[in-house]
Amino acid sequence: MNNTVITYIAYLIVAIPLTIWVAKTLHKNGRVFLLKSMNNDENLADSVNHLLVVGFYLVNLGFVSLYLKLDTGVESISGIFEALSAKLGVVMLVLGGMHFFNIFLFSRLGKKNCDPTPATPPAYAGWNKAAEPK
């Protein structure tokens, strides 16, 4: 087995569990955030949370798979670490970027769905109903 194959195996051994861990963490901790964004509709929040996890897996595992190929062969042990750090660094940046993009979208949705309290008209100084002409 050559160093390039070892790099591929190590990349998959780290990238796939990393993706699974991030998805489980987002699913577990995202429920409260989604509930607020969905006006406390538990069924809708849970459904959206599940759909987000499925989409997260599809996009990220697809990206991990497509990003597997190395442009050059790995010649040494240090080359294995350099290739792994570059590949895993990009995967982590993509995972983080997707996370913040989702938070941005749902924070916007939460602001849009908030029920504003009805505004009370301002009181006019000096206005007296008893002093109105009849």
Automatic annotation (TrEMBL):
<keyword id="KW-1133">Transmembrane helix</keyword>
<keyword id="KW-0812">Transmembrane</keyword>
<keyword id="KW-0472">Membrane</keyword>
<feature type="transmembrane region" description="Helical">
    <location>
        <begin position="88"/>
        <end position="106"/>
    </location>
</feature>
<protein>
    <recommendedName>
        <fullName>Integral membrane protein</fullName>
    </recommendedName>
</protein>
<feature type="transmembrane region" description="Helical">
    <location>
        <begin position="47"/>
        <end position="68"/>
    </location>
</feature>
<feature type="transmembrane region" description="Helical">
    <location>
        <begin position="6"/>
        <end position="26"/>
    </location>
</feature>
